[in-house]
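thread: overnight batch results

M.L. [08:02]
morning all. the overnight job finished for the chain we discussed friday. pasting input first so we're all looking at the same thing
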Amino acid sequence: MDSSNVTTTDSIKKNSLDMTNGSIFKSILLFSIPLILGNLLQQLYNTADSLIVGNFVGKQALAAVGSSGMLIYLISCFFLGAASGAGIILSQLYGAKDYKRLDLCLKSTLAIGIIIGLITSIIGVISAKPLLVLINTSSDVLSNATIYLRLYFVGIIFNVIYNMAAGILNAFGDSKRSLLYLGIASVVNIILDFYFVAFLKLGIAGAAIATDISQFISSTLAIIYLARTHLPYHVDIRQARLYKDMSIKIIMVSLPTAIQNAVIALSNVLIQAGVNAYGTNATAGFAAYMKVDGFNILPILSISLAATTFIGQNIGAKKMDRVYKGIWIVLSIGLVYTAIISVIMLGFSREIIGLFSRDQEVINYGILSIKALAPFYMCLSICHSLAGSIRGTGNTLAPMVIMLLSLCLYRILWIIIIAPKIGSIWGVLLTYPTSFIVCAILMIGLTIYVFSHIKKDDN
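M.L. [08:03]
and the structure it wrote out:
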């Protein structure tokens, strides 16, 4: 990066978050809160689709959004993993003040995002219907679900670019900026949902178009800011290009996390197929729950990203005492949050699911989902918080293996072997909490091993 793009230290500190100095709790909290709020806003405008469609179109449309939702989640998880991997390298280069290689990383990150977005959009539009058929989507839901999924894939490139841009900002601790853009997009999405679905009567297509437009807005705002800033993360999308060595490094670090997220999401798709087998009411009820579940899982992933960024910066700065203390603080924040959200969801389950549908059968299936999963959110928080901490060391392979074993292979075996023996939807739903417990236990063991060896190496 040339000197014209590097500002004074005071300016950098004002617009980004240096996690290598000062209060550890404050650093993690200042980074996490905007990120959590941003993800909650993102979930809010995803939930708005289901809320408005469920109330203004009907339970078949709600089920259609739900069937599409798991496939969308699969793709989104891959993008988040890719952005997280790039963020690891960026945060370490920033912690080491290596601005020349940082510039190459920024340009390569955007280029990779654009390429992934274009490829995914084309493949998604073509394969939408076959994928929905593959997961047992009901015939009365299939047509609407195909429309929604294809329209969503048309605009998927905006989602990818936003996630990559947000990953760049988050690597420097500037999570407030991405929150602002996401907030604007969320408001636009909700307004457009009402306009397209309730006023113009465009049905499920209107909800998908509203989502595409809102994602275009958030990605455009983020890209414009990155091009205009004079801080170390300045990068113009027109300068995006693949620098061979840096691109290979980004891909090598990103791929394990991206594959891990995608494969875990694939296991969720299989669970969705199991739920779909119980009919439209079960699909709609589970869909309503999954939208609410996002208010739990996305903040957990935000805390995990905070751990990755904090650990990455402090390892880059060779401040190991802060690394070890940071792990405990991240764990504490995650456990407190999930305990609170679990109590709220269990205490108001009927009212929460009732926001999406007035159909009693749909509500009952949604309540069953909450009862099966909500008590075990704390285990999932332990799993992701520790995985994020380990990734901050640059070791993305080991947590990937643990995640694949516990949240993918275990779930697939459960669905194939255990669920049929139980013989009810409970057999499908219990896949989640049991996998949370297995993941937490394995990740605790891995964390002890990884950081005890880092400590020995440091000494």
